[in-house]
Description:
Oligomer: single chain
CATH architecture of the largest domain: 3-Layer(aba) Sandwich
Strand order of the largest sheet: 11-10-9-12-13
Order of helices and strands: HEHEHHEHHEHEHEHEHEHHEHEEHEHEH
Low-confidence stretches: none
Shape: globular
Amino acid sequence: MEFSLSKHEHKPLQVNPIKHSQPMGATLAFLGVKDCMPLMHSAQGCASYTKVFFTRHFNEPIAINNTSVSDITAVLDGGDYSILMAIENIQNKEKNLKPSMIGLHTTGLTETKGDDVRGVGTHIEIPYVFVNTPDYEGGMESGWALTVTAMIEQLTVEATEIKSDKLVFLPHLSMQPIEVEKIKGFCEDFGFETYALPDLSTSLDGYWEAGQGKLANGGITVEQIRDLATSSVVVSIGASMKKSALALQKKNPLITHFHFDHLMGLDGCDNFVSSLMEIRQDEPKPMIKRWRARLQDAMLDTHFLIGSSHFVITGEPDMLVGMCSLINSVGGTIRAAVSTTFSDSLHLIDAEKVFVGDLEDACAFFDDADMVISNFHAERILHTTYHTALVVRGFPNYEELGNQLKNDQLYEGSTYFLFEIANELRKVKHEH
């Protein structure tokens, strides 16, 4: 099997990119904190694009503000002034607006100038978390991970004791709100008081509440983030979240860290269940065993369709690792796994080609593929040129409704995912 992996792209530009910026990942992470006010230290266009991006993906009003920096004000006024004025203007405009926290994240313009975003916090009475997320480095996944680490380092209080039944898990960027909810419930079934950081399961889950759009509606509270160091266990899911878990361990060395590259497929889920059983010394509930048996049956039922098919998958590194592993376990062949950015976790993928690229690069493998798993932008390419099945995953998905309720995780989600791709393959193979 030929393996091609490079830390750097060789093209001078991206054509039909699948990569998105670090500030977008930071915005999404802050939206998982209750009553947080995400504040992008940027020009208006940066925040407007991000707001539209998430509004269309989730079909929800998105809470985000910006400091309205321009190339002129960035030089003349300085970062402190722009940030403080933005906060004052927002509060003057909305008298009843009482954010629990301000989540400031930078962009390429303000990072290039080198604004002192740390020092600004000394002038702000509201809890304040800053994170450096320049556009010209990393991608959406790393922006999310950096923000989670920043919240732990700047908010969580050091502790010397733990609560034996308290668990915090750190989901990677590509997990949808329902997936966070399912994993929380899964851990609770083992008797854990469970917290997720960030927690999108109650903020972007599609539940309508009055006053949406001003602040992040649901999610973990600032008080709960402060108290995370009393957890007995931290579970990181996805390679991007390892550093965040280690940051929490520094707050309390008594915390036990369990890391999982993904929670998709039989092996990934079994490893997770084994770890929870080891801690709690308890058997899984009957429904967990039932879903494991259903996944085994689904693997058998879909083996002939998936096992005879070739796939091209694009997306964030942590998402790619899980999906490729599940498809491999049923006999599917991954022709190409195209990542948004480089990550050491890409070495875990069993595929003919693994590389950092864009949809133009991915097109070179479409002719030999029975299915493409990619974001919304792959649809117009496939429908105009190729006769290949498409399953939409990752950011953005403007074509389908209910993105926040798509579950591919654990035994249950893996079962649904296998049936979904098998049914799409059947349609295409019968038509052609």
